[in-house]
Amino acid sequence: ERAREILESGARRGSNRLGVEAMELLDAYGIPTPQGDVVSSPVEAEAIAEEIGDDVVMKIVSPDILHKSDIGGVEVGVPVEDVRDTYEDLVVRARNYQEDATILGVQVQEMVDLDNGVETILGMNRDPQFGPLLLFGLGGIFVEVLEDNTVSVAPVSETEAKGMLDDIDSAPLLRGARGRDPVDEATLVETIQRLSQLVTDFPAIVELDINPLVATPDGVQAVDLRLTLD
Ligand code: ADP
Ligand code: MG
Prior knowledge:
Blueprint: H1 2-12, E1 17-18, H2 24-28, E2 36-39, H3 42-52, E3 56-61, E4 74-78, H4 83-97, E5 105-110, E6 118-127, E7 131-138, H5 142-146, E8 149-153, H6 158-167, H7 171-174, H8 185-201, E9 205-216, E10 219-222, E11 226-229
Antiparallel strand pairs: 1-11, 2-5, 3-4, 3-5, 6-7, 6-9, 7-8, 9-10, 9-11
Helix pairs in contact: 3-4, 6-8
């Protein structure tokens, strides 16, 4: 099946760290991801942007770069006419950061509406004693500052997944505080269960982070992915 192939192709590259190039893994489990692709040339990047038909987000894809935005490896709101130059810029920044970094390419991704969404984090850490621990909480830039999250052992039932939403202090933010529209809670709960299934099916995944998982009134979008294989 497709998910297995993605993990094996990562392993074949000799790297136990996978990033956004493995986002199809989420698609395979029905976890929504923004439209886009990883490409290896400026011309291909432009073609993807034209297909998307709007400003795009571009990200460097390298197993040696864990926090892409820290090194200037993420550009949001790139107009189609700037896509080729931005491709080159991202590669230069990656080389400046680490001359011999393995660069798999650049991801060109549809923009997600963060203004109407909440950046959450959905992750997993495999504990030798307890097994796969799912983590759900507030994501994006708030993740370290606020540390508002909750942990549950996978696999989780629907009730347990719902309970994870209730558990975090920022739950009111998801439910429409300050005149915002509430996020699509049913899809969020389903997404937690789908990740639970994924990490249960693949014991080789020892760590996984979707940060951010953007929750909006219309559903969720997994915007970033990082995982480690044993
Ligand atoms: P990293 O965590 O490695 O720095 P991300 O892919 O998480 O890289 O991107 C960093 C930040 O850029 C995200 O937290 C989000 O705020 C913003 N961002 C990334 N992708 C998108 C997107 N498709 N639409 C809107 N904002 C995005
Ligand atoms: Mg991220």
